[in-house]
Each structure stands twice: as C-alpha cells, then as structure tokens.
Amino acid sequence: MEEKKYKAIIEGILFSMGESVELEKIAGTLGLDQKKTKDLIDEMRNEWEEQKRGVTITELDGAYQMCTRPEIYEYLIKIAKQPKRRVLTDVLLETLSIIAYKQPVTKMEIEKIRGVSSDHAVNKLVEYHLVCELGRLDAPGRPLLFGTTEEFLRSFGVHSIDDLPVLSPVQVEEFKQEAEEEMHVKLDV
Questions:
Q1: Does the keyword Plastid apply (predicted)?
Q2: Are 184 and 119 contained in the same domain?
Q3: Given its phi and psi angles, is residue 82 left (phi above 0), alpha (psi -120 to 50 degrees) or beta?
Q4: Residues 187, 100: Cα–Cα separation, whole Å
Q5: Which of 26, 46, 106, 137 has the fewest CB atoms inside 10 Å of its own CB, making it the most exposed?
Q6: Tell me, what CATH number does 9's domain have?
C-alpha cells in the first residue's frame, strides 16, 4: 500500500475516534511496525503545519489525537456562542401545545391525543429546552412526566402557564370537526 493511502487511513481513524489512539493500535490496524507508523504520523503533522490546516495531530503519552489548532480556538468560541436556529414544525408545535395545556403529561397520554408515536417530537422539544422531565408518574412502569420550561415561557412571551390562551368550547368543537374531516380525506385517498 502506498504512503498516501496509509495517511488517509490514519486521518480517518483519528477523526472517527475523536479521542487519543495508541500508536500500537494504529500500527496494528495498518499492519505496519510502530516506527514506520510514527514516521507517517510525524510526516502528516509536518504537512498539516506547512499547509496551516485547521487541525493538527497531538501526541499524548504514546497516543495520537486529532485536535483543532490553538490559533482556531477564538473562532470556535464565536461559532459556539451563536444561537442555534430552532425550527418548530407542525408536529413539534402540536406536541408542545399538548404538553403545555395538559402538563404534567406522559408520552402515552400525548400519543393517545395525537394518535401517533411522539418519541421524536418530545425528544426534540427536550433538546430545544422547551420541555423537561418533571418526574415520574406513580403508576406501573413509572412513566416520565413532561412539562414546559422557563425557556418555553420566554420563547412564547408568557409569564406563566396561566397566561396561555383559553379555548372556548365552540373552538374545541371546530378543531375536532376539522380533525375528523382531515382524517376522512386522508382515508379516502
């Protein structure tokens, strides 16, 4: 195998592992002796330094790890501090509204209302810090209870759950009728 291929494999290993990998393991994977493997890694380090690449290979007690070059840190900090853009799809909004109005609520209750699995939606809302686990229901299986967070209140401009709009019985019936009509249209297609 040519050196270029060995270097590509080393780069792939170090990138994929994300943590330090012992020279012995890298050499064993390549089928090379440790000296030849170390020489290849040193060549890669020198090439990357000459090219002023954004990453480097750091030696840590006989092991190697791919790391960001120190000169790049300030840019990493800038991008890490940028607010993440969150997209609330119709499914997420529907799930969030159920949690907001019914909290504390279990996934099973959410799924009963929605009629479909809600694992992904609930997990995404937790990831967005709009929903959190409030504890466990004192029932068989001890299912998790979910509720909204302060981030939810901030994001939707309400001071408390009591400030959420109240639906009139007429609106509830209209929503039910729309949902039923929608289900019939989907079933007829």
A1: no
A2: yes
A3: beta
A4: 30
A5: 46
A6: 1.10.10.10
159 and 116 share one domain: yes
Single-letter residue type at 103: Q
Name the residue type at position 42: D
Q: Are 136 and 144 in contact (CB under 8 A)?
A: yes
Find the domain containing 116 and state its range.
90-188
Residues 94 and 173 reside in one and the same domain: yes
Q: Which residue is associated with the tokens 């810090």?
A: 129
